[in-house]
Write a structure and sequence with these properties.
Distance between the termini: 61 Å
Number of strands: 6
Number of domains: 1
Number of helices: 13
CATH superfamily: Outer membrane efflux proteins (OEP)
Radius of gyration: 38 Å
CATH topology: Outer membrane efflux proteins (OEP)
Helix content: 55-70%
Strand order of the largest sheet: 1-4-5-6
Order of helices and strands: HHHHHEEEEHHHHEEHHHH
Shape: elongated
């Protein structure tokens, strides 16, 4: 590698080359590139965390039919059979022996008429829990998609930085070779050779670190997306999906963010729990029907049939203070849930402001980094020319080369930060979803399973509501 080749690989490796580093590193082809949308769709369908939360929603759906069971009758059947032997000795009557096989069967029906509003409140509470679980699912979906997008861009960034460091090692190896040649003819001192050797060792260490960082990012990608990253296409920001201003983003987030909605449903469920608990203090009214058939109850061969319908009224008088304590406890929990809403709103507000600021900063950093790269390239070219005529030392050339590598790495990082920040803003306002991104995948409908189980009266088979 001669002097011209060094210039081409270092100073000539300009902005266009930096922007294309990711493509070159991943050996992209238009037909086979793995895109951001495809990776997000795979994460949406197969991420274990998201699938676990979907299962949690389906489990929560079952609270509704459980609560509705309070309106329905409870029917029980019973049967018994036994044997009895009676040996009696009565004065004047002598001995008598009775052998019986008492047996019978019966059916009992209990129907609730009034339970102090417990069932009605339980049903409303279960429905609030379902809506809260759906909101939590949407929030989990956002987090999974954001993690997948972040890991995607991290792989691209670390691949580009690794390529930059490998290129830097090649340049410094040639620089060291030429410095040693010049030392042999007395143009430079031993100090110049040592400086070139030190800078090469530093570059090799940076290359090893960059390779390690890339391996970590690949592992995170595998964890979030479910496959190894291969031939990743460049990621692009989604700023066209974002609100036009920070105040607009805050207004949307504070009203519609899934975390806020889940907290509000948590308040509803907690307040309804107060009513459920208070119902234990109210009278209950019910009807009990009983049909029974008995044989050999008292004498051999007897046959008795009985049927009854009884209305019952139960009035609690005093239960030791337990219900009163549980009611006060439920009220305190409801107060805690109301505070949790404020906490969620504060958290969402902070996330929106932080993500918006990060996006603005990334845009500004890209502009600054582009200018930094251009200036570093110009400076390196000038230092090399001055070094030829003895106005610059080898250390000056090495420093200029290092500054150019740093500038290019900064530009790559800023480009990654802009894409990730755009996804973070969309997540912070509560709109990062498969529908918003228009991913080419079937959207999970949590209402399907709810509709399947809400009216089920019996059966243990799990509906296919996935």
């Amino acid at each position: 590698m001669n002097e011209k080749e060094i210039k081409r690989k270092s100073a000539g490796y300009g902005l266009a080359a930096v922007l294309a580093t990711v493509l070159a590193a991943s050996q992209i082809t238009t037909a086979s590139a793995q895109t951001m949308d495809a990776s997000l769709a795979r994460a949406y369908n197969g991420n274990p965390t998201l699938n676990s939360q979907r299962a949690a929603v389906r489990a929560t759906n079952e609270n509704v039919p459980q609560a509705l069971s309070g309106y329905r009758p409870r029917i029980t059947a019973s049967a018994d059979i036994g044997a009895s032997l009676t040996d009696a000795n009565q004065p004047g009557a002598g001995n008598s022996t009775s052998r019986l096989a008492p047996r019978g069967a019966g059916v009992q029906i209990d129907q609730n008429i009034f339970d102090g509003g417990r069932t009605r409140s339980s049903v409303s509470q279960a429905e609030s829990q379902v809506l809260g679980a759906r909101a939590t699912l949407r929030n989990t979906e956002q987090n999974v998609l954001l993690d997948a997008a972040t890991s995607y861009m991290n792989v691209l960034r670390d691949t580009a930085i690794l390529n930059l460091n490998r290129n830097n090692v090649e340049v410094l190896e040639e620089q060291l070779r030429q410095t040693r040649d010049r030392f042999q003819v007395g143009e430079v001192t031993r100090t110049d050779v040592a400086q070139a050797e030190a800078r090469l060792s530093q570059a090799q260490s940076a290359e090893i670190l960059a390779e390690s960082n890339l391996k970590t990012s690949i592992a995170r990608f595998r964890q979030n997306v479910g496959v190894e990253p291969k031939q990743l296409a460049p990621g692009r920001p989604i700023e066209n999906l974002l609100p036009k201003s920070l105040p607009a983003a805050l207004d949307i987030a504070l009203i519609g963010h899934p975390a806020v909605i889940a907290a509000l449903h948590g308040v509803d469920a907690a307040e309804l729990q107060v009513k459920v608990t208070e119902a234990d203090l109210y009278p209950t009214v019910g009807v009990r029907g009983l049909v029974a058939q008995r044989y050999d109850s008292q004498i051999f061969g007897d046959n008795r049939f009985s049927a009854s319908a009884v209305a019952t009224l139960t009035i609690p008088i005093y239960e030791g203070g337990q219900v009163y304590s549980r009611t006060r406890q439920a009220k305190e929990t409801a107060g805690q849930r109301r505070i949790d809403v404020d906490t969620s709103r504060d958290t969402v507000r902070a996330a929106v402001v932080s993500a918006w600021g990060a996006l603005d900063a990334a845009k500004a950093q890209i502009i600054a980094a582009q200018a930094q790269v251009q200036a570093a390239e110009t400076a390196l070219a000038g230092v090399r020319e001055e070094a030829k005529v003895g106005q610059r030392t080898t250390l000056d050339v090495l420093n200029a080369q290092q500054e150019l590598v740093i500038a290019r790495s900064t530009l790559v990082t800023a480009q990654r930060d802009r894409v990730v920040a755009s996804y973070a803003v969309l997540s912070a306002v509560g709109r990062l979803s498969a529908e918003t991104l228009k991913l080419k995948t079937a959207v999970y409908d949590s209402r399907k399973h709810y509709d399947q189980v809400k009216g089920l009266l019996w059966g243990t088979q799990v509906p296919d509501g996935r």
